[in-house]
Design a protein that fits this description.
Strand order of the largest sheet of chain B: 6-7-8-3-9-10
Structural class of chain A: mainly alpha
Largest sheet of chain B: 6 strands, mixed
Structural class of chain B: alpha/beta
CATH architecture of chain B: 3-Layer(aba) Sandwich
Helix content of chain B: 25-40%
CATH class of chain B: Alpha Beta
CATH topology of chain B: Rossmann fold
Strand order of the largest sheet of chain A: 1-2
Shape of chain B: globular
Oligomer: heterodimer
Order of helices and strands of chain A: HHHHHEEHHHHHH
Largest sheet of chain A: 2 strands, antiparallel
Shape of chain A: globular
Helix content of chain A: 55-70%
Number of helices of chain B: 11
Number of helices of chain A: 11
Chain lengths: 275, 289
């Protein structure tokens, strides 16, 4: 049953979004997240939601996969909402009870913050749903490469991520095996208090760690014997090349940024419809 | 031409051992002492020995993962103790290890095969070609996009071999490549190795403790306690049933049977290694009666 845990959350499909260069996707997601905090006014949010909906539609990933990502942070959203609801200073008081003051400004601001969080999570899960972990790792490596001269270990970070991804299924398998072996000898993982259950994990973790270290040692030897000597002088089988659709995506991104700032300007300038 | 020449190779290391009173002490271990041998280019060589006989240590010497503390090893004329030759030697003599899980680096088969050439700094187009070619040679082309964790042990080991082939070596050293495989996987791997040896002339050095695998080799070395104790053609080596048993090794079942029959006075040749040979010998015997 432990094998069912899926690696990352890649949703395989054949869509224009899946086919985009991972670097571009990473860059666009970054822009999307940053610009999200410049949006204000109802029209601005409607524009963001419509653009996001359009991209999701094109990506052919079912909406419920996006919403699944929200489940894990529902508490954070509620918490953020409550804090903002009561802590925002304002003049249009709706009601007051002890030290709690609910203002019209608070309601609006809390709603805005929650909406931003939801949009942020959906947008970034779109990236991980349409990009394989390995593409993502490569993209991170190429994006970090210019910073290598400032001491950022770009190649090493990417290598560590690749190896971690490679060994997740192996170690899950191993955990399963160890658990069965301990259960066969009478170990009980499913009953007792929280403390007892935590303690019963020790006989799993100790062998798992020992074997992980042994594997790491063997892997290092194997890599060395295959002439691995760090990132220097290394080439790549796949050289990511910008294609026409990648440039088109960048163009769309620029248009998107322009729209966001135009809307923001419209709001601050006080043009009636946009306030 | 010699692929590997070892001259009086010794390898000593210090090991921390726990003593009876709980303290630990340094102990000197002689993993190899005075091993001299040579392996011809294009040959299929098996090195036999029980656990701790030094056979794996010797394998790592060929790949320059370990350097002899005494003596010298030449791989295709390059001395492993010379630091400048390290990567050339590793390119020339690739190494496959026992556990297929612990030698695959990438999450996609073709990316893993590309790991070696990428390290060597080959141009991307050449890497593409050599990866496709290597997968074809081990018969794993259809799995190019698969994840290694979904493959069987024998398939993973063939991927590991492809990863070495992609570096265009002249020699492949395999350290018990079949020890963790089921009989089906073992057969897959052995067939691949023999094909590479026969059709492409790649020198194979197989470290093993399965006698059946050693029988098909051109030349067999037996190691015990860090020393080279027996060497020769499989027929010469396996006919010495008593001596092999003394080194903690089993001889092929048929050879043992032939040996037992000979002791009982049945007139059989001493070099029977396979069931077919046994049948032939017994039929000849019957016709003379």
């Amino acid at each position: 049953m432990i094998r069912d845990i899926t690696l990352g959350q890649y949703y395989p499909a054949d869509s224009p979004i899946h086919g985009l260069d991972a670097r571009i996707k990473l860059l666009l997601t970054f822009i999307y997240i940053v610009t999200l905090f410049f949006v204000n006014g109802l029209v601005g949010y409607v524009f963001v939601i419509l653009s996001l909906a359009a991209v999701i539609r094109v990506s052919r990933v079912p909406l419920r996969f996006m919403l699944r990502g929200l489940k894990s942070i529902v508490l954070i959203i509620i918490f953020t909402g409550l804090i903002n609801l009561f802590m925002t200073p304002g003049e249009r008081v709706i009601f007051q009870w002890g030290f709690l003051t609910l203002t019209m400004e608070g309601v609006l601001f809390a709603f805005q913050m929650c909406l931003r969080l939801v949009l942020l999570i959906i947008g970034s899960s779109l990236l991980t749903l349409t990009t394989t972990p390995i593409q993502l790792t490569d993209a991170i490596e190429t994006i970090l490469k210019p910073f290598a001269r400032f001491g950022v270990p770009a190649h090493e970070i990417a290598m560590v991520m690749t190896i971690a991804l490679r060994f997740i299924p192996t170690l899950l398998d191993e955990t399963d095996k160890i658990m069965k072996a301990q259960q066969a000898r009478g170990a009980d993982f499913d009953s007792g208090s929280l403390m007892e259950r935590a303690k019963s994990l020790i006989p799993i973790l100790v062998p798992l760690f020992i074997s992980a270290f042994r594997r790491a040692d063997e892997l290092a030897t194997a890599m060395e014997s295959r002439c691995y000597r760090g990132g220097e002088g290394r080439t790549k089988m796949y050289v990511a090349k910008m294609k026409r659709k990648d440039y088109q995506a960048v163009l769309l991104g620029v248009v998107y940024i322009a729209c966001i700032f135009a809307l923001r300007y419209a709001v601050s300038a006080g043009i009636p419809f946009f306030v | 031409m010699k692929m590997v020449t070892a001259e009086n190779v010794c390898y000593t290391y210090w090991k921390t051992v726990e003593q009876a009173d709980g303290t630990s002490a340094q102990k000197e271990v002689n993993a190899l002492c005075g091993v001299s041998l040579s392996i011809e280019k294009g040959s299929f060589t098996a090195i036999l020995g029980h656990n701790g006989s030094g056979k794996s240590t010797f394998a790592k010497q060929i790949n320059a993962l370990l350097i002899p503390t005494e003596g010298t090893i030449w791989v295709d004329g390059m001395c492993t103790s010379e630091a400048g030759m390290l990567w050339e030697i590793r390119k020339k003599a690739g190494m496959v290890f026992q556990n297929p899980d612990n030698q695959l680096v990438a999450t996609v088969v073709e990316e893993d095969v590309a790991f070696g050439p990428e390290n060597l700094g080959m141009p991307p187009a050449d890497i593409r070609k050599t990866v496709e070619d290597s997968l074809l040679r081990v018969g794993m082309t259809e799995y190019a996009k698969a994840a290694p964790s979904h493959l069987s042990g024998g398939q993973k080991q063939r991927i590991a071999i492809a990863g070495i082939l992609a570096m265009k070596p002249d020699c492949i050293v395999l350290d018990e490549p079949t020890a963790m495989l089921d009989p089906g996987g073992r057969k897959e791997v052995m067939e691949t190795l023999h094909r590479l040896n026969k059709q492409e002339g790649i020198t194979i050095v197989l470290i093993t403790h399965y006698m059946e695998e050693a029988v098909q080799a051109d030349q067999v070395f037996v190691m015990d306690d860090g020393k080279l104790v027996l060497s020769g053609m499989p027929k010469e080596v396996f006919s010495q049933v008593k001596r092999l048993k003394g080194y903690g090794l089993d001889v092929p079942q048929v050879t043992e049977l032939a040996d037992a029959l000979r002791q009982e006075g049945v007139d059989l040749p001493a070099d029977i290694l396979t069931v077919e040979e046994m049948v032939g010998a017994l039929c000849r015997l019957q016709s003379t009666i």
